[in-house]
Amino acid sequence: MKVALAQIAPSLGDVDRNLETHLEFIDKARRAKVDLLVFPELSLTGYTLKDLAGDVALDPATDPRFKKILDRSRGLSVVLGFMEESATAKGLFYNAAAFVSSGKILHVHRKVFLPTNGLFEEAKFFAQGRDFRVFPTPFGRAGLLICRDFLHYGASYVLFTGGADMIIAISAAPGRGVAGADDAFETSRMWELMGEAMSYFSTAFVLYTNRVGIEDGVSFAGGSFIYDP
């Protein structure tokens, strides 16, 4: 199994431009014979949306832009982040992640733990997801987490008890401080420690993709990784 982590810098609020980036990376992954391609949190929209959420939200089951990703995913699997509008309660918007494979949506996860302190304002604009579920994929059973979900041990534990072979976390985590000869962000080590611990104790492969770039004055840390048990 070959995995690629697409550590991109999405354009804030520009779904069409981000869609083209996704399609380019999917084509590149296919040429490289990648089996699973993982994008970061809110990769279709950018992160600091605030009241832009309603303008960029979509229904993955019906939106023609999402259909382009489904069509292009034939022959491989893709995880991506997007803003989802509730199909049953219009005006509710979720920070969501989708696992798509060979033209089908296998699972959608809605972020449960919404940080709303300091520079984070998610609960002011986004609805809260309610559950963590494991689902079948072409590579075994998997579970999805979005950013702050990953830092709550109980979330990964639920996926572990559900028999997850892979725990896939997508993130838009800022970077703070610089440490080491490689000039890495100090905060990246926190995510690495969680990934290493969860992989070791859950006997699952842990895949983590974080975005890069600067958006609304915030620098995002990158530092994507994969840990095996």
How would you explain this protein's 3D organization?
The chain is α/β, with parallel strands linked by helices and 229 residues long. Helices cover 25% and strands 28% of the residues. It contains six helices and 14 strands. The strands form four sheets. A five-stranded mixed β-sheet has the order 1-2-3-4-5. Strand 4 (93-101) and strand 5 form a beta hairpin. It is globular and about 40 Å long. The two termini are 16 Å apart. The model has no long low-confidence stretch (mean pLDDT 94).
Spans of at least 5 consecutive residues with low confidence:
none
Radius of gyration: 16 Å
Can you give the mean pLDDT? 94
Q: Main β-sheet: number of strands, strand sense, barrel status? A: 5 strands, mixed
Distance between the termini: 16 Å
Number of DSSP helices? 6
Helical content, roughly? 25-40%
Task: Label the overall shape.
Answer: globular
Determine the strand fraction and express it as a percent band: 25-35%
Strand order, main sheet: write it out: 1-2-3-4-5
- Helix and strand pattern: EHEHHEEEHEEHEEEHEEEE
Number of strands: 14
Protein structure class: alpha/beta
